[in-house]
Amino acid sequence: MKNNKKFDMVTIGDCVVDHYIVPQEYKVISGQGSKTGWLGLKFKRKTPVTEFSMFPGGNALNTAVGFRRLGLKTSIITSLGLQKEADLIVDRVIGEKIDPSLIKRDKNDEVDKGIVFVTAGERTIVSYHCKKKYQFPGNFSTKWLYLTSLGAGFETVYKSVIAYKKKNNVKIVYNPGSRQLRDSIGQVRKMIGNVELVFVNLEEAQRIVGSNKKTLKFLLGKLHNLGALNAVITDGQKGAFASDGSNYYRLPIFPIKRVDATGAGDAFASGFTAAMSYGLPTEEALKWGSINAAREISLIGVQNGLLKKNQLVNILKRNKNYKARKF
After folding, report:
1. 166: number of Cβ within 10 Å
2. Residue spans per domain, the chain
3. Can you give the residue ranges of the Carbohydrate kinase PfkB domain (predicted)?
4. How far apart, in whole angstroms, are the C-alpha atoms of residue 285 and residue 273?
5. Of 67, 220, 243, 259, whose CA–CA distance to 148 is shortest?
């Protein structure tokens, strides 16, 4: 059956219900075979928490909310079960005025779940990914596709996305998920050859291009060599780096009190991509992404800090000296 709906942006990926916990007592153990250390709780003891809450999230939902608040007509392609957790996600979609018509609900599917420990402004996530039978509904029209984290069986979606792009001449934005980066780097590289824009962090960029070099211009160039027309690499507290193939830009993080880092990457990506969809240049898109991410990490939980377009524009007007620089 023909779906006559037309969108500015359609996100594709898994959704999750996250349970947020702020432990009162914990210890960060450095080293021990991990670049970032380990989070320690008292063994065989009860640990009191100062806050416990639950949020519907996942990269596809987080970015869909971000795009919709920034004024884009948005829908989401995701696979959900019939459980109450899935109802939470659908309720959030409808509540944010995101079109729900591309959501597949199947009794054999489940919703991914996560436990997020928020400590000193950072987050540690314990995740449970459920098996799903993915389907790509080709009966819709959109200007942009935002492809992000998927579970086992994602390959069929990738093939459908590439075929849809070739048939409809849409622009693909790509933020590969952890499973793809861990198990299917060849698939990631192939997809990058089809995208308008790719978002990765420094470590992900190194893995994709097969190099331990930390030189941002080198890594961005390698992403272009794989076929990406535009590339963005985020590097934590050092800010974000972007290239349109000719120019390279750097923007430091927007100053704000960091409360919870969960959802920062999705907030950045939705801000940056929305700016591009409005025809703004790379250096301006960096500011949209960074300010949106800063607002998101100032509050606990995902999506709570995502800005509306007028709010973001007003912050930009008040911070005219906040600018991206060429490097």
Report:
1. 10
2. 6-326
3. 47-305
4. 7
5. 67
Using alpha carbons, list the distances in angstroms from residue 28 to 31, 37, 39, 47, 127.
Answer: 10, 7, 5, 15, 19
Q: Both tokens of residue 82?
A: 């019939």
Alpha helices in 112-168 (DSSP H): 155-168
Strand partners, 128: 113
- CA-closest candidate to residue 60, choices 88, 93, 86: 93
Q: Cα(115)–Cα(127) distance, rounded to whole angstroms?
A: 6
Average pLDDT along the chain, 327 residues, taken 10 residues at a time: 80 91 84 70 82 89 99 97 90 98 89 82 79 88 98 94 96 96 95 98 98 98 98 96 98 92 94 99 98 94 94 98 97
For helices 59-69 and 264-277, give the axis angle rounded to 10 degrees.
40
| Amino acid (1-letter code) at residue 241 | F
Cα 171 versus chain centre, distance: 17
Q: How far apart are CA 218 and CA 322, in angstroms?
A: 25
pLDDT reported for residue 311: 98
Element (H, E) at 198: strand 197-201
Q: Rounded to whole angstroms, how far apart are CA atoms 117 and 260?
A: 10
| Residue 165 C-beta-side C-alpha neighbours within 13 Å | 20
Q: How far is CA 149 from CA 57, 87, 186, 248, 266, in A?
A: 12, 20, 16, 27, 11
- Calpha distance 321→37 (Å, rounded): 36
The predicted model scores a pTM of: 0.90
CATH for 6-326 (3.20.20.140, 3.40.1190.20, 3.90.850.10, 3.40.50.80): 3.40.1190.20
